[in-house]
Amino acid sequence: MHKILNKKIIATDVTMTEIAAPKIAKKRKPGQFVIIRLYEEGERIPLTIADADPVKGTITIISQRVGKSTAYLEDMPESEGILDLVGPLGHPTKIEKYGNVVCIGGGIGIAPIYPLAQGFREAGNRVTSILGARTKDLFILEEQMRKVSDLVCICTDDGSYGKKGFVTDVLKELVDNGEHFDFAAAIGPIPMMRAVTKLTKEMNIPTIVSLNAIMVDGTGMCGACRVSVGGKTKFTCVDGPEFDGHKVDFDELMHRLQIFSEFDAAARERYESENKNPNCIINEKK
């Protein structure tokens, strides 16, 4: 069991959870993730390690209430234990001194882009962060991102916070105004990453993306997380989670994720109908 030490709602349906995991905290590097299982009959879900404190022996994960497991995690009280916590998994981000780096995070994707921005800054890069969300209530980690960025640009789809528009609009505006970027990292919804990589390819900016595919075992055995990269099949859990964004088949990935999203929504609906009080742990772990 890994004890939940601290929890905080940081946006609508988004929770930051600090967990005791000393071995993982010491080994974790930017870009890596864990797979958690909350109880015996629960599913295994991948979550990026947003932060880690080797001295305290803790890791921080940020989850969005989408399916049953993420809803259950949000409702778990502090001091409860997570049954299984495996990690760190995946290849860490290749942190180098590129020069001018742009980190682009959309929605919950701001959580995994944060450790990347931090790593790039510590390596001596000038970091520009472009952060977007559908609306102000869904915006996360602004203060943390400002601490690890030389410039932060904010936008929302509805204009409720920052510039009205998409992250691609901001990127294009920066480049049109004379900004030059040697490297880019983009993490967020699949349509966002697809749009960003299409633009950066036109701009000749090397770009990595981090893919949040469906995972079960985290070792490449099940094949659930397979993606097409450069016309070849890759497994997100062992070959990724980061790939050359200009080679990813986003249309195929989006189609596969849409199939599972319907099951997630239905599972969450059943869970919440069985547990009317959202502040209480469910009485029966179904």
Task: Give a verbal description of the structure.
The protein has 286 residues and is α/β, with parallel strands linked by helices. The chain has 2 domains: 2-89, Translation factors (Elongation Factor Tu (Ef-tu), domain 3); 93-207, Nucleotide-binding domain of ferredoxin-NADP reductase (FNR) module (Rossmann fold, 3-Layer(aba) Sandwich), CATH 3.40.50. Helix content is 30%, strand content 31%. The protein has 8 helices and 16 strands. The strands form 3 sheets. The chain has a 7-stranded antiparallel β-sheet, sandwiched between helices. Strands 11-10-9-8-12-13-16 form a 7-stranded mixed β-sheet, with helices on both faces. A two-stranded antiparallel ribbon has the order 14-15. Helix 6 runs antiparallel to helix 8. The chain is globular, with a radius of gyration of 18 Å.
Return the CATH class of the largest domain. Answer: Alpha Beta
User: How big a fraction of the residues is strand?
Assistant: 25-35%
Structure annotation, total helices? 8
Largest sheet: 7 strands, antiparallel
CATH names the topology of the largest domain as Rossmann fold
Strands, total number: 16
Uncertain ranges = 278-286
* Percent range of helical residues: 25-40%
Determine the CATH superfamily of the largest domain. Answer: Nucleotide-binding domain of ferredoxin-NADP reductase (FNR) module
Q: What value does the average pLDDT take? A: 89
Separation of termini? 19 Å
The SSE string, one letter per element, is EEHEEEHEEEHEHEEHEHEEEHEH
Instruction: Assign the structural class, choosing from mainly alpha, mainly beta, alpha/beta, alpha+beta, or little secondary structure.
Output: alpha/beta
> How many structural domains in the coordinates?
2
Overall form:
globular
- Strand line-up across the major sheet: 6-1-2-5-4-3-7
Q: Please give the radius of gyration in angstroms.
A: 18 Å
CATH structural architecture of the largest domain: 3-Layer(aba) Sandwich
